[in-house]
Amino acid sequence: MVDNRYATALVIGSVLSLLATVYLSVAVGTQHWYQYSSPPVKHKASNATELKGEFINGDFDEMKYSGAMFRLNGTLGLWWRCIMVPGQSHWYDAPDPKLETWCVSFTLPQQFTSKYRHSEDNNEEEDLLRTYLWRCQFLLPLVSLALVFLSVHVGVCACLCRTFTPILGVGVLHLLAGLCSLGTVCCFLAGVDLLHQYSRPPEGVEGSLGWSLYLALISFPLQMMAAALFLWAARSHRKNYTRMTAYRVA
User: 70 and 37 in contact (C-beta within 8 Å)?
Assistant: First the structure.
């Protein structure tokens, strides 16, 4: 028999966990973690086309794709990098052509590629800090989602076995998942800051945080609140059960 207070805590914790999972999943799959606002495109069409070609079809060169994002209103995510280029226009079209978004995904080997202080010269010494920040920002959200799904299985097993003890493990798993979500945001912001130290954006280019990063950041307190509710329900129910058992024995 479960007290109504504990059942309510479990329901609210489950809803918070679901919201956090949805927010983090959307954040991981979108590219609006960091975005650049460039001055109006004054490049000739050939220059924009050249930058677009290097960005999409060129080798994986951090310096080149970063330069393209700086100049072409680019956006950066955990799995994607995008730029905005003028679309195909004719002489009778408006002077300001409509911009089109072009995105390229980071492949799995590229996620584990080493970072260097000067990307144009890969013979330089490896920058271990940026390398592991990049890898952590890729791995930590996956670990966070895996912990949440593992906690779901633990919770289902607890319901089938009609025991409240595994809920303590559910709370601990959500606590670790929340820390991983926060670590993802911290690693990403630190990596972007270090990138700007080695490859400074041109004058007039402004960077800002995107809505994808805010979604990942919101998932952290949601997971922590869910963990607190699960831990409170498990510990309080255990104490109450111990007291009732001792009372019956007496």
Answer: no
